[in-house]
Amino acid sequence: MIRTRIAAAALGLAGVLAASQANAESAGSSKAAAGAMAPKPCVDPWDFVTTNCLLTWKGITVYGTIDVGVGWQSHGAPFDPRSAVAASYLVQKQNRSPLWTLAPNALTNSAIGIKGIEPIGADFSVVFALDAGFDPYSLRLSDGPGSVAANMGVPQNQQTAFSDSSRAGQWYNGQGFVGVSSPTYGTLTVFRQNSLTLDAVLDYDPFGASYGFSPIGFQGITCGGGNTENCRHSTSLKYRLKVGQFRAAALWQFGGYAQNNASHGAYQFGVGADIPTWGKDVLSVDAIYSYVRDSVSLGLAPGSNDANGTPIPPFLPQTLTATISDNSAVMFVAKYTTGALKLYAGYEHIRYMAPSNPQTAFTDISGDFVCEGCAAFNNTNINNAAFGVNGLGNRTMQIMWLGTKYAVTEDLDVIAAYYHYIQNSFFGTAAGGPAPCFSAARAQCAGTFDAISAAVDWRFAPKWDTYAGIMFTQVNGGLASGFLQHNNIAPTVGLRFRF
């Protein structure tokens, strides 16, 4: 496991990287005009803290965000600085009791990065970006899989707020890409990049993939097309093109596990448009298709449950388990902007199938060795049989959301959203094929998840804002199997510095 500490405290929102790709066309063709409109470079530390100046030198900009806060949880788990989310804002299997907790990265993941756009002739520019997320309290690089592995063998009622993630302790755990951009021919980038579905969640979730107020930001099922580790691909090609009000995009992951990916291959296609309606109103829509081969999801195998799905003491064994599957997904998202009001809606249908190539041993993106049938000596296991073959026992997950953001003033936003998940009743080849069910007795039963959240965000200075909000989450049926508690109320207040 990577347990690296970083000595700098700063952050870059993952969506900034996506925006640098999507907007590179306009920035590359008119260097003088862009320079005139851009914030000025910082001249001293006070200027850096109090104005919107940039840390720029010879075309390279250092950027980031620090997001710190505190919160209370009605059914929580202790703070874990290894995890990207750090606090269990969302109800999880290990959540159990009321507690006050440090609440970092609630509105935005803390990270630090560099980026640049440099014209190279005609209307072409070189674009690049690199960033890493971290916990602002401990300065550890975000390592979701490492946080899961650290809780192996720990009784469920003593576990911390671990959570799987595509951020796995790498020094490039956000994005790390380079490419060429043109306003005519689009933008082509290579290496570690956001999935198209992560870009969509950042743009079409009213909370912008927030950990503290958005389950589709906290979990990553949506942005990964089924599994959170696929929200980012370390070896990939990504192409974006915009023609008038229309746009298209494609992504291809060409590497496998050995290249720090969480699958043996993936591809995505997306189309969208920004459609003027009445006056200055705009309707934005996007549709994305995803397919991921031999996708990995890390978790801890539950101990024995009673008839209601509640774990029976001593809540063991807790084995690190990698579930392997082929996943396909279709996402539809929309956003309507009218004056100070923005309305959001999204839907994703995900199908989990048997893996194309069942695995026997591999090293995950956090550096942990996982093998099938070897739990006896290293407490790990691979599950290739969680889902059926030829449509038998395939799992489907439907995720939908509605939300709104209203700018009360230029510097004050009010945000609210509702999220709903639906899981079908399914069984894998290892489960023996019982009749359909809707209960918490088994994870294969049909189930639902609901979340309601609201927050106020006040930008009181050029680089500073403070926020306060609350999220309620609840699980039912098969999605509640193995949970100690079935709901959580998590109010959070925080302070964010972006540069």
Q: What does it look like?
A:
With 499 residues, the protein is mainly β. It is 10% helix and 45% strand. It contains 8 helices and 22 strands. A hairpin with a 2-residue loop joins strand 1 (55-57) and strand 2. The two termini are 30 Å apart.
Topology:
Blueprint: H1 14-22, H2 24-28, H3 31-37, H4 45-50, E1 55-57, E2 60-76, E3 97-102, E4 111-121, E5 124-133, H5 144-150, E6 176-182, E7 186-194, H6 196-204, H7 215-218, E8 232-233, E9 236-243, E10 246-253, E11 265-276, E12 282-301, E13 319-338, E14 341-353, E15 361-363, E16 369-371, H8 375-378, E17 380-383, E18 395-409, E19 412-423, E20 447-461, E21 464-477, E22 487-498
Parallel strand pairs: 13-17
Antiparallel strand pairs: 1-2, 2-3, 2-4, 2-22, 4-5, 5-6, 6-7, 7-8, 7-9, 9-10, 10-11, 11-12, 12-13, 13-14, 14-18, 15-16, 18-19, 19-20, 20-21, 21-22
Comma- or semicolon-separated keywords:
499 residues; mainly beta; 16-stranded antiparallel barrel; two-stranded antiparallel sheet; 45% strand; globular
